[in-house]
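Extended Data, panel c. Modelled sequence:
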Amino acid sequence: MLLGSHRIIGGRFKLVTDAEDSVLFEKEIIIPLNKGRNLLQYFKNCVANILSPNQTLVRFVVTKTDSEGYHCELGILNDSGVEDQTNDYVFEYKQREFENVDKYNVVMLIPTGIGAEIGGHAGDATPVARLLSGVCDTLILHPNVVNASDINEIPSNSLYVEGSIISRLFMGTVGLRRVRSNKIVMVVDKHKENEVNEFVINAASAARTTLGADIEIVMIDPPTHAVASYSSSGSAIGKVEGIGRVVYRLQQMKDYDAVAVISRVDVPEELIEKYFKSGGKIINPWGGVEAMITHSISSLLNLPSAHAPIMQTIDDLDESMGVVDPRMASEVISKTFLYCVLKGLHTSPTIVTDDITQSGVLSVNDISCLVIPDKCVGIPVLAAIEQGITVIAVRDNRNKMENDLAKYPFKKGKLYFVDNYFEAAGLITSFRKGINAGAISRPVKKTVIK
């Protein structure tokens, strides 16, 4: 099936009803430690024994590794309206055949909702993205890195790619093709206060007249119901009811290339105030639910997607939070938090599934390096281990994850720890030039004769 000029999955997932009872939720499990090497296959087998036939896995992350085992969080879509169910979809894997050295392409990830010191709030990792973009040919990043409400200073040589699509890129099952522009469908939860709806419409009009973006709005009524919460690891998660209505509506439409989801996320009023007045000490409560929603949309429809929240009441928009932590400032000056999403989706690449080796498609063969905050383990890291892709872990981007990456089965010379992103940029530069990192530091190890 075609949507506009872009190919979508075509039958892997299809909602045959509007799935009124669809629920998107998080499940926490502990998986026993594995002594073998292939963790992807091990996790795939373990998760397959947990999911029921009517459940779709849309997210998998290891929050902590200790003597008990792997503490994991699973994002699960519980939806009896899905046909051709595939429980192991997230774990579908194809080994890359080679590494293309014509270009040096870097993936930068800062997982949403983990309280990252850099990139854990509202686009505050953008300077890092601009730094790393200067030492590589293409920088692939996800919305959380650069989304800053009414601001999106995405580097010109970067690709704005939803997180679950980046996971599949590392797994070797999708590729990315650049576009000049996309037609964007805005799926908007109809708000009970019409003034909020008007703000959203005006934001879309602003993007149409400044970006020159092609945007269509679809109102969802009754709206979805999303509630933010925190997991036992302290990361932001949540629960979403009615996501099936959004997917079903989108599947009935034609001639569009990307999806902006604008929906209300319920957060207690007292938590909103505490968050903005915490000086960055409280994890952004909206991020986890937003990631769950876009993982589901992009996984089911095979299209670029991004999310912007709607405030619960018009009074929330009018309430002053005073002078906030600079990392939060872009949030308190916005009424819709939406423009950044539209700018990113305007040129977000097409998702290619049928022949990822064709000319003009960036695939796992073209990925040179992955940069992550230290201690983070998700599908991209697990796939990088299997694909032999270099991983750089940045120590000073502290977060809630508790994994010792040195204990994971990386091939020799494929895992590097750096103290900060300046060092990461230097390491990338040395790799790009073919310089062994050991030749830069002192003392130089003695030449070994074997």
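The chain is about 25% helix and 25% strand. This feature is highlighted in the accompanying rendering.
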